[in-house]
């Protein structure tokens, strides 16, 4: 839908506010990329007993949802370690 809007505006000579976001020549080097990399590195180096089975980031306990959450790519696990959300593909080994 967005690409149709961008192409339609392009044909009509209008400036589309989303054109830069979807431009094939956009740069992926953004400040949040460095922040995400730093957070992942800190998580990987954090001493903890509970690790995500996906790539090994330190899991954080979410007291409101009562789940184990991985800050790296977003999967969640029940209190007992059963997988709720991807991208992890298996349960925790507790
Ligand atoms: S390391 Fe936890 S989801 Fe990738």
Radius of gyration over alpha carbons?
Answer: 19 Å
Total count of strands: 3
Tally of individual domains: 2
Taking pLDDT < 50 over at least 5 consecutive residues as the criterion, the unreliable ranges are none
What fraction strand? 5-15%
Supply the CATH architecture of the largest domain.
Answer: 3-layer Sandwich
**Molecular shape:** elongated
How much helicity do the residues have?
25-40%
How far is the first residue's CA from the last residue's CA? 44 Å
Summed up, the helix count is: 2
Bound molecules: FE2/S2 (inorganic) cluster
Q: How would you characterize the largest beta sheet?
A: 3 strands, antiparallel
The helix/strand order is HHEEE
Q: What structural class is derived from the secondary structure elements?
A: alpha+beta
**Which topology of the largest domain does CATH recognise?**
Rieske Iron-sulfur Protein
CATH class category name of the largest domain? Mainly Beta
Report the average pLDDT across residues: 90
Strand order of the largest sheet: 1-2-3
Give the tags.
94 residues, alpha+beta, Rieske Iron-sulfur Protein, 3 strands, binds FE2/S2 (inorganic) cluster
Structural commentary:
The protein is an alpha+beta fold and 94 residues long. The protein has two domains: 1-45, no CATH class; 49-94, Rieske Iron-sulfur Protein (3-layer Sandwich), CATH 2.102.10.10. The chain contains two helices and three strands, in the order H-H-E-E-E. The chain has helices at residues 2-12, 31-45, and strands spanning 60-62, 67-69, 76-77. The chain has a three-stranded antiparallel beta sheet with strand order 1-2-3, with no helix packed on it. A hairpin with a 4-residue loop joins strand 1 and strand 2. The radius of gyration is 19 Å and the shape is elongated. The mean pLDDT is 90. The site of FE2/S2 (inorganic) cluster has 11 residues, from loops.
